[in-house]
Amino acid sequence: MTENSTKAVETTEATTDGENGTSTTLSRRRLLGTVGAAGAAGLVVGGAGGAFGVSAAQDDAPALSTLGATEVAFRADRRTPQAGITTAMQARCHLVAFDLAPGAGRKAAAALMRRWSALAEKLMAGEVPADDTGVALDAGPASLSVTFGFGHSFFGRTGLSARRPLQLDPLPHFSADAIDPKRSNGDLWVQIGADDALVAFHALRTLQKEAGDTARLRWQMNGFNRSPGATAHAMTTRNLMGQIDGTNNPKPSDPDFDERIFVGRDTDQQWMRGGSYVVVRRIRMLLDDWEKKSRTEQEKIIGRRKSDGAPLTGGDEHTPMDLTKNGPDGFPVIPADAHARIAAPESNQGAAMLRRPFSYHDGFRDDGAPDAGLLFMAWQADPLRAFTQIQRKLDRGDALSPFLRHEASGLYAVPALEPSGYVGQALLEG
User: Fold this and answer.
1) 22 phi and psi, to 5 degrees?
2) What is the model's pLDDT at position 59?
3) What is the pLDDT, as a whole number, of residue 50?
4) What is the rounded distance in angstroms from the CA atom of residue 212 to the CA atom of residue 153?
5) Which residues of the chain fall below pLDDT 50?
6) For residues 246 and 93, what is the distance between their CA atoms, to the nearest angstrom?
7) Which of 121, 155, 174, 379 could form a disulfide with 164 if both were Cys (CB 3.0 to 4.6 A apart)?
């Protein structure tokens, strides 16, 4: 499978068909010509009154910055994974799950997925849907991606239990679990990512409204990462513990990347061929306890230097860990219970996941501790052989576990997308 590519956007012409009632798809990027030029004019004349006197059609309208202009492709000219899996990490994220309303079965679910897919394609291209709220009118696509998945319960509600993959069987309980059922699971799952907060919220609100009476909101979570350009050079993101997070991720250039992350042709559920399974966990970090540890203690718990993410055995962030190296005291340089050691593929018979996490902060708890941590998302071809296997090992002796609480959980099947049609069509119409 290939990574969903991004590209610089071009202006999209307005298309209106009032007679047939079709939606106006005037590009947000084109509208920026009005707003951008207006802003400049307003500064010159000292007020906003002249802001709307500039035509959107003028040829010399200012261009979007790279940040706003970057577009993520919704679909390709062949069967490919959905965007939001190998797409570069964005600055903002919304995760949301819906349950089908009582009486909404397979036919209603298919109609909803058809509408959602069409909307996602427009939004990711920077187009304005009908009856738009105007929240993102003056922004470009800003790397917006929308990803759809199906939970375990979706199949029973739609009469498709025979087509539910075994990989969607419920995850086992782990010792760090304090799972809130109200913030877990769900029939339908949506991941929204963007480099602009208003663009991300606009997509969330638009899709929520389009659900109408077919699906009801079950839970919703908001996440963030560093904004593009915030560091001197591109680098792996840090989490709220201050640790570089994602160093040992599988890479699309790895020869076994597809095998580890995407479902193969030999699956007994062909509608999932080329798709992936995502484990979603809301993991609260006990930051007050963590921050009491010295940097040396923190580094031993993780197994990597805090400054640059390099393994304690030396080198830089991407130097392989030497799990056999002992220190002068005869003990392993990377402790036996270090998180990086226990989670490494070398310690799990080659099992690996593509981690794509976002941080979250939801205020403070009654005791004053921050309600903050990680919206952990892990992509894999088979959760039993990847997430469950690795988490079981972490559960038995990970030095980091005492500083974490897993408070919400979900597992979803995310099918690949055909060159035409809507997400899940092969499942719902097959």
Assistant:
1) -75, 160
2) 46
3) 31
4) 20
5) 1-26, 30-59, 61
6) 17
7) 155
Give the contacts of 10 (CB within 8 A, at least 6 positions apart): none
DSSP 255-308: TTHHHHHS--TT-S-GGGTT-EEEEEEEEEE-HHHHTTS-HHHHHHHHTB-TTT
Instruction: Give the total residue count for the chain.
Output: 430
Q: Are 107 and 243 in contact (CB under 8 A)?
A: no
pLDDT confidence of residue 65:
75
Per DSSP, the three-state class of 402 is helix
**pTM for the model:** 0.86
Tell me the C-alpha distance between 189 and 309, whole Å: 32
- Rounded to 5, what percent of the chain is helix, strand, coil? 30, 20, 50
Residue 27: per-residue pLDDT: 54
Supply the pLDDT for residue 388.
Answer: 96
Q: What is the pLDDT of residue 430?
A: 80
According to the model, what pLDDT value does residue 130 have?
A: 85
Instruction: Give the CA angle between residues 181, 147, 345 to the nearest 5°.
Output: 75
Q: 202 is written with which tokens?
A: 């606009």
Residues 6+ apart with CB under 8 A from 360: 221, 222, 223, 224, 282, 372, 373, 374, 375
Provide long-range contacts, Cβ within 8 A and 24+ apart, for 165-173: 165/267, 165/268, 165/269, 165/272, 165/413, 167/277, 167/382, 167/383, 167/384, 167/413, 168/277, 168/411, 168/412, 168/413, 169/384, 170/411, 171/279, 171/383, 171/387, 171/388, 171/409, 171/411, 172/388, 172/392
Residue 170: count other Cβ atoms within 10 Å of its Cβ: 9
- What is the structure's pLDDT at 131? 86
Give Cβ neighbours of residue 111 (< 8 Å, ≥ 6 apart).
Answer: 214
Q: Which pairs from 131-136 meet CB under 8 Å and 24+ separation?
A: 132/206, 133/202, 133/205, 133/206, 135/198, 135/201, 135/202, 135/205, 136/28, 136/196, 136/198, 136/199, 136/202
User: Could you say which of 99, 187, 195, 245 is catalytic?
Assistant: 245
CA-to-CA dists, residue 145 to 67, 71, 210, 223, 403, angstroms = 14, 9, 17, 14, 32
324: Cβ contacts below 8 Å, ≥ 6 apart: 332
Catalytic status, residue 245: yes
3-state secondary structure of 107: helix
> SS3 of 210, please?
helix
DSSP string, 35-90: HHHHHHHHHHHTSSGGGG-S-TT-TTPPPPPHHHHEEE-S--SS-BPPTTSSSPPP
